Amino acid sequence: MYASIDDIPLTSACHARETLEGRNSLREMGRKGKLNLRGNPGDAAFSAAVQKAFGMELPLRANTYNEFQSRRLFWLGPDEWLLHCDMDDIDALTETLSAELGNVHHAVTDVSDYYTVIRLRGPDAVTLLRKGCPLDLHHTAFPTGNIAQTRLGHASVLLHYHDDGETWDIQVRWSFAEYVWDYLLSGMRAR
């Protein structure tokens, strides 16, 4: 498949595509470090270790996230979170977290090469997403700052609605990135 580990691509297939600008824009975001974290938030030692390692508390409410500097910690489930951070920080954060957690029951998995983020921005973003998403994306049901795991067409995604009211980050597996891109692009062309 690849001659060496250095030949493995560090971005999804969408990275080679041109950013689309205009009334609405579509682009793949730069590569970020991503850690999947599992543990018991009711265990004070677990929560304290995460806060010390990441600089922020665990988000404990569904469809929320916390931020600290360039890091975002997304709630995925009652015992699961996803950290986005700078790629240069991933190894140090993993080591710090492992040291802080010690024997506390947990699981940490580097998924940096598993997901990419496609950003859709513009006045028609909600309309474009509604065509393939079963969630009610009206601002009264899905206010800015919210996140949700859902489907977009046939792809599982994590939607993040930014506070500006026009920007959506769509986190998707690399293997579905081109599908999501083409899905959104066809909607943009039809507008």
Structure, described:
- The chain has helices at residues 44-54, 90-101, 125-130, 174-190, and strands at 25-28, 33-39, 65-68, 71-77, 80-85, 106-110, 115-121, 147-152, 155-161, 167-173.
- It contains four helices and ten strands; from the N terminus they run E-E-H-E-E-E-H-E-E-H-E-E-E-H.
- 28% of the residues are buried.
- The model has no long low-confidence stretch (mean pLDDT 91).
- The protein folds into two domains: 21-30 and 114-190, 2-Layer Sandwich (Gyrase A, domain 2), CATH 3.30.1360; 33-110, 2-Layer Sandwich (Alpha-Beta Plaits), CATH 3.30.70.
- Helices cover 24% and strands 31% of the residues.
- The chain has 191 residues and is α+β, with helices and mostly antiparallel strands.
- Strands 1-7-10-9-8 form a five-stranded antiparallel sheet. The chain has a five-stranded antiparallel sheet with strand order 3-4-5-2-6, with helices on one face.
- The longest helix has 17 residues, at 174-190.
